[in-house]
Every structure is written in C-alpha cells, then in structure tokens.
Amino acid sequence: MAVGPASIARPAPVAGRPITLRGLLEREGVFSWIMLTPGVLFLLAFVAYPFFYGIFLSLEEHPVARAGRFVGFANFVILAHDGVFWQVTRNTFMYVAVTTVFKLLGGFAMALVMNQSFRGRNLTRAFLLLPFIVPTALSTVAWMWILDPTFSIVNWLLVHGGVITSGYSWLGNASLAMWSLIVVNTWRGMPFYGITLLAGLQTISPDLYEAAAIDGATTTQRFLYVTLPVIKPVLIIVTMFSVIFTFGDFQLIYALTHGGPANATHVFSTWAFDIGMSGGQLGMGAAVALAILPALVVLIVGLTIYLRRE
Amino acid sequence: MTSRRDFVTVTLAAVGGALAPRWAGAAPKAMSVVHESSFIKAFDDFFVQKLAPEYEKLTGIKINYEPVSVGSMLTRLTTIVETKAGPEIVATGVNWPYLFDAGLVDVTDVANEVGKKLGGWHDNIYDAVVVNRKWKAIPWGNIGQLEVYRTDWFKEVGVNKFPDTREDLLAAGRLLKKKGHPFGFELGHGFGDNHGWLYPLLWSYGGREVDKDGKTVLIDSSETAKAVDFCRKFYQETMLEDVLGWTDVNNNRAFLAEQISCTNNAMSILIVAKRDFPEIGKVTDHGLNPQGPKGRFHLFNVQSHAIAAHAPDQAAAKAFLRWLYDDKQLSAWLVAGDAYYAPFLHGYDNHPMWNADPRYLPYKDCLRTSRLHAWPGPAGHQASESVAKYVLVDMFAKACRGDSTKDVIATAAAQLKQIYKAK
Fold first, then answer.
1. What is the ipTM of this complex?
2. Which numeric CATH code is attached to B146-297+370-419?
3. B253 CB near a chain A CB, below 8 Å?
C-alpha cells in the first residue's frame, strides 16, 4: 500500500481534529499528569497510605493478631503520663539537636576545604563521602567493634597512649552511650552536609569574591557577606532534611544499644518499634511514632515560610 | 430433562461434583516454614538437606525453609500474622502462642497424637502453648538460660563446684573479680540473656511482677526489694560496668575473649568454644541458676511450630507437622541440634543426645523449674508489653547504676500498672 510522506499531507484544521494519542501527549496538561502519575501512585502507596494508616492505628487499641478498638486519643493520654515517654522525648531532642549542630559545623568546614584547589582533591572528596555511602547496618557493625569494651580500639589507644588506665564503657555508661551514638551519627551524616554545601559553594560566582576583595573585604567578611547569604537557602534545606532523617534514625541506635542502658538512648523510633513489633501493641507503637509529628510539622512549616519570604 | 440448557447445567454440575473432592483435596505443591536461624548450623542444615528433601520425595510437596536472623523472629511473625501472608508454618518462642492466638490454627489433635506416641508432654509446657484449652503450637525444645562458668578460675579461688545459692555465687564472684576475672551478666537491652537471669533472680527472692489474675501488680514488695538489693551488690562487687549496655552478643564475646569468668547464657558459648576455642571449651561448664531464699527458677524459652491461620491448606500443614514430630524425624533432628534444644516429651527424657557431653545435662534439669516471663501472671499481650519495655531489666539496671531501691521499684510498679490497667 502506497503511503505518501507525512510532510506532504496537509494538516487537518484544528477545529474538529480527532483526538489522537499524539495529540493528547502534546497537550501540556495531559502530558504532565501522565509523567506525574507513577510518582504520585508510588507516594500514595508507600508514603500516604502508611502515614494515614499510622494515624488510624494510633487512635486504636490494637493488639497484634486481633481487631482494633477505637479509643480516640487514649493512647496519647497514656503516653503523657508515662515517665519513659518523656525520657524518650528528651533523648530524641538532644540527639537531634546536638548531631545537627555537629554535622552542620563539620559539614560546612568540609565543604569549604573541598572547595579549595589542592592536589588529590577529587580523591579526597570521594573518601569523605564513604561514611554516607557505606550501608548503615555495615558501618554500625564496625562501630560496634570500635566501641566494644573488650576489643575497642579507642580504649586500646587511650590505655596504650597513657591517657587512661582502664577502658571506658562507651555503651554501658548512660551518658557515654548517648555521646557515642552522637559521634557515630555525626560521622555518618556529615558528608551529606559537606557534599550538598559544596554544590552550593560552587554556584557562587568568583566575580563576587573578586569584587569584595577589591573593596577591601577580609576573608571573614567575604565569608559573612558573600558566602553565607548566597548559600543560606541550601543551608536551610539541607538542615531541614537532616533533622527529619535524624528524628527517624533507627538502625544505628537499635544495633548499638537497643535503647539501653535503662532507656538512656531510646528515641521515638526505637521505642515505637519495641512497643509495636516486640510488645504487640500496634496502636500504642503508632502513637509513639506519631509523637514526633508536631515537632516536624512546626519545623517544616516554619522553614517553608522562611524560604518563601527569602 | 426438558431442554438443552437443562442438559448442560446438569452435566456441568455432575462433572464439577466429581472433580470437586479431587480439587479440594489436592495437595499443595509447596509449603514454607519460617524459623529463627539456629546457633547450631547443623540443626538448620539437617532440615534443609535431609528433612525437606525427604518429605518432598515422600509426598511431592516442596518444603521451603526461610531462616530469620536471631532476635528477628518476633518481628517477622508480627508481619506474617498482621498481613495474613507469608509462610504457613511458623516458629514461635516464649509466650508467642498467646500473643498471636487469634492468628494461629488449633493444633490440639496433632499435639495429642505426638504426646501419646512419645511418652507424654511435660506438665509445665501447657502454660506456654495451650491457649484457652487449645494447643496453638507444638514445642520441639527449650533453649535454656543457665550459668556458664570457667571451671579453672573458679578452682583457683577454691570453688570446685558451681555455687548452689546466690550468696555463695556472690562470694565466689568477689574473689574472682579481685583476681581479675569479673562476672558479666547482661543488664542492657538485649533480647534474651538479660531476662534469662533477672526474672529467675526476682522469683528466687519471692518477687513477682503480677498475680495470677493478671490484674494485681505485685512488684512493689519487700521480696522485690531484696532481689534488687542483691542485684546491686552482685553487680558492684562482681561485674564490669559495661554489662549495663550489653546486648546478647556481648557476654558470649567477653567469655570467649577470657574477659569474664561467669555469665548467664544458652549453651551456645560452650558449643562455640568447643568448635573454635578448644582450650576454653575444656574449662567451660554449666550450672543451674543458684537458689534464692524462695527457691530456684529458670526462664522458659520454648521453641515451637505453629500454623498460621492464613495457611491455604491447613490439613497439609498439619500432615507435615505430624510427620516432622514423628520419632524418626524429630529424634534425628534434635541430635543434629547437639542438645541445644531440650525437648518437652517424656519419651526423650533419656534421649541419647544427652549422653554426648555431661555438661549438657543441666539444660535438661532446668526444665522442671522453668517459667514464662510473666509467671505467675497470664502469658498474654501484657506480658509481652512488659518484656518489650524492659520493665524488669531496667528496674535492676537502674538500681545497679546507683538509683535507690524504692525509686526503681516505684517506676516499675507505675509501668506495670499502666500495662496491666491496674489501679
């Protein structure tokens, strides 16, 4: 069958043109929805559904393998009267606040150094990313050995270096255990800050620095009045992400201390898991997990408003 | 027959009727069993390499074996029962038949048959697997938690036999710590070795978490206070500070690194020592938990098989369990397990597996004095919540780190009252 080349065919008038797939795809409104659908479905299935189911569960007394019974806010009322809940709340906020400050400062310093030109810069960048790349479960096992009372290399170095006479109990002492977890989390999370801020730093035009230098600005002034204002949006976004991730941190704590000793390192996620999955109280577990929500909502809304103003 | 339509209807009904029993009774092509990975590799291997292929040869049903890492079985079981999906035959531990009662099939018929064939079940096993007079799981063995100690170091301080009372053990521990061989009993948030010695400690002083009715919280008592005071002394005078943060791997590691002279553990330390550290293996032995003023106790860790309610063919799953718990299979499987699992069947009280090493025998002897965590309270959801929240472990741990006896008991009592909805 002979078919003329498409270019020869005269285009049909717009009015009354039959609806074709190609025509639909060319419409921006339709095409954008087609492209969005897989992502939206994915989010609905794996984010929205579990989230709303979590809210629903938190309003139920729901022992595992049995039907739930709607109890309203009773689970939250019980939590408010539970001393361990408040200890877990304090632990979580301390863990998030201290690690965020450490990661922010360390990551910023890392980014500033990586932004300089020096020999082996690319290799150093790759190495600095390692803590972020290695699966958390694996790096946590390494830290388990590093902090192990019997085999701890830290203790070995301190004892053999003459700093102390006998090793510290890094995970057995309540305060040291929390600080040990903070160090491990900082170690793991700092490259995320470093690499993101480095990307931000690289967008700053050298012209700005040159202009500032010509105006007689010192290094500190150039940092305060050129680097910081330009990088501020990136800084805020990266901090927001990091805070959200740290609030939900689970693997590291669960593997290293499991919330011990005597709940000194339990955070919302580990405690919720214990109550829901080990204790079989799914409703109460969900209520504990959702207890982070108000803090996160305030943070996200606050930062979003700030960014819009900017 | 009046019409073609009637003819077709009747014919189809007849053919369907003839085939239906065959379809309904058709054996499944495969079934799955989920288990916590055994510390004894040979136990898992025996199932995969010997039992499963043998059953497939016999019936044509393939048995898939899904091992779950140690300590993760409860999470896996929660997921299976809640989603009603996954393996049809599930392993259970401690009080889980109570916890998952509604999600498990009644296996009373199989349990009765097995009991009749193999000399009858031990009396106290009913507390662990019979829920509302229905067997919800069939136990194959107990992973006992006993005292594991270094015979050579104990001898060095003049203790030739494992101490029979708590005070004697404390006295031995004092001497051993002075000699640089402290004790190491887990007080952190592990899943087993902490509960393994702390519940028996409480009971041996007469303390109880909750009464039989499951409503009266009994923890606030002078007996509990005595147990707490003993624990603090025991910790301060015999142990390393680090035990407060230990999980289940730490005491095994410390014992095998010759850092501690005594701990409370399953038989895994001796088994690993015999295999990997034969010199340590030669000087490692087991003792029953020492007696307190109110007796000697051990913690149950009952390992059983249950059938999940979502199993598409429950009859086939029961048939497999009947075959598995037949003496021919079960006996050989337990031998492969190297006496790590102490069976609850009187027919196996003198099983040849106990002759392999006299050091295994205390794990058989402890069955008589073993109880579930919440004993004498009911083994239901509240018991699990208390265990998951480490109420008892933390009560003792806080006392060891220096909190007052009164405070730690008050905190535990408040938590237990909330869990048991008691006033």
1. 0.84
2. 3.40.190.10
3. yes
